[in-house]
Amino acid sequence: MEDKLTIERISQAHPKIKKELLNSYIECNNKLPKNVRLRFAYVFRTPQEQHELFLKRPKVTNADSWQSIHNYGLAFDIVLLYDKNSDGTFESASWENDKNWQFVVSFFKSKGWEWGGDWKSFKDAPHFQKAFGYDWRKLNSLIVNKITIFESGITYPNI
């Protein structure tokens, strides 16, 4: 069973990854146990949303506005939902690095996604990205220089 909120969030992904991300999400989610559902906590983030996260304490990110791959629609963060209730809703969110979490990590890494849990400094276990060899500076220069794609009310770098 797909998570409607995740499907909505995927609709804001960069056009270059949107279809692949949706298909991978559905495939991965369907391979999880019946009482577990994958949710994308974030896909695209506005610069303002990124700045608010940057200011949070305890610290959750080193990336300010335009310094996150989320700002370009090329990243997503995961959370697992557990404990299906009788009405079909899920009760608890988990970021625990359990066997289901590791399954999701392995699945997306096998599809070519970079996992934030592999980073040397400031490990970010919920984070995955596919930036096609671009860093945030290059992606931002594409936006600044108006080398962009406009879709669904969002401006993305044209990569």
Any descriptors?
7 strands; 159 residues; five-stranded antiparallel sheet; 5 helices; globular; two-stranded antiparallel ribbon; Muramoyl-pentapeptide Carboxypeptidase, domain 2; alpha+beta
Describe what you observe in this structure.
The protein has a single domain (about 5-155), classed as Muramoyl-pentapeptide Carboxypeptidase, domain 2. Helices cover about 30% and strands about 20% of the residues. The chain has helices at about 5-10, 20-30, 45-55, 100-110, 135-145, and strands spanning about 35-40, 75-85, 90-95, 115, 125-130, 150, 155. Strands 1, 2, 3, 4 and 5 form a five-stranded antiparallel sheet that branches. A two-stranded antiparallel sheet has the order 6-7. A hairpin with a 5-residue loop joins strand 2 (about 75-85) and strand 3 (about 90-95). The chain is globular, with a radius of gyration of 16 Å. The protein starts with a helix and ends with a strand.
Topology:
Elements: H1 4-10, H2 18-31, E1 36-42, H3 47-55, E2 75-84, E3 90-94, H4 99-110, E4 114-115, E5 127-129, H5 136-144, E6 148-151, E7 154-157
